[in-house]
Amino acid sequence: MATGATESTVSPNLTGVPRVDFLEDVDEFMKKSENDTAESVLKRQEELHNKFKFMEYNLNLKKSRLKNQIPDIKSSLDIVKHLMVKRNNTEPLCTRFLLSDNVYAKATVPPTEKVCLWLGANVMLEYEINEADDVLMKNLEAAKKSLGQVEEDLLYIRDQMTTLEVNMARVYNWDVKRRQAEKDGKL
């Protein structure tokens, strides 16, 4: 690939992000048949840079979503654990629950063996309390693992972008030197 990226190598996490190799020798790189002019090489590198920016933007959105999701899962897990403790109690549980932003309602919850969990996409399922605890624990572990992977992906993409930016500067400087040499009649 003319951008200093090799198509056959991908990131260690196998997300298909191309690896950008540092251009040690710009003269040799520019002699390759696919590298007609510095402008065409810089254009391809800029396109790849824009792709990296797009991937970074999407990963940051995913990271933000996961950072909001994890506290919600923890809160649900705490509530389920509290209900597990109170299920053998004969007295109902008095609590407040969130209706909308800053609007709460009082509720009296009788001892129960079942709870309903929002799964997303307007889907709610009823679970036994122990099952709900298992589901929430698995969801929490998956969200934490996904957040870790997203953070690794972001670091990898930033590294690739930095290498690409350095390569772009090296190709640009090579072209400036070449043009100056042509102008001075040395080529």
What keywords describe this structure?
187 residues; alpha+beta; Helix Hairpins; two-stranded antiparallel ribbon; 3 helices; 6 strands; 58% helix
* Uncertain parts: 6-11
Biggest sheet details: 2 strands, antiparallel
Number of helices: 3
Helix content: 55-70%
Distance N terminus to C terminus?
27 Å
Shape: rod-shaped
Count of DSSP strands:
6
CATH topology of the domain at 37-88 and 129-181: Helix Hairpins
User: Which structural class fits the helix and strand makeup?
Assistant: alpha+beta
Strand order of the largest sheet: 1-2
Quaternary state of the chains: single chain
User: Mean of the pLDDT scores?
Assistant: 88
Question: Topology, pairings included?
Answer:
Blueprint (H helix, E strand, L loop, with lengths): L4 E6 L7 E3 L5 H5 L7 H49 L6 E8 L2 E7 L4 E7 L2 E6 H55 L4
Antiparallel strand pairs: 1-2, 3-4, 5-6
Helix pairs in contact: 2-3
